[in-house]
Amino acid sequence: QVHVVESGGGSAQAGGSLRLSCAASGSITCTYDMYWYRQAPGKERELVSGTDRDGSTIYADSVKGRFTISQDNAKNTVYLQMNNLKPEDTAMYYCKTTTRGWWYCGEDYWGKGTLVTISS
Q1: What is the pLDDT of residues 58-72, one digit of tens each?
Q2: What is the rounded CA–CA span in Å between residue 9 and residue 35?
Q3: In sequence order, which residues have a C-beta less than 8 Å from that of residue 30 and are 6 or more positions away?
């Protein structure tokens, strides 16, 4: 059973920065692809950023140039450095990990979320 835990959410002023962390654990042989999603009230959950198994990174157009995703493979942890935050970034941020490598992998696991609130 894979466990996913997010941390680092909180409140910040517009123009400030926050750093989110997501740690995945529990799989011995599967590798992890990791993604950040967010969902604001009344809006659909959207992909913010992620890393795939080839090591490439993706960003939503709304956060390009402001957010940076990185990994610490030894700790199975992914970080989302969020700079120049805007009120529109206010949302619950969720980490999703997808296990890869073997027939029993390929499962999605979601964290419970961490709330980010940006004030003007």
Answers
A1: 999 999 999 999 988
A2: 16
A3: 2, 99, 100, 101, 102, 104, 105
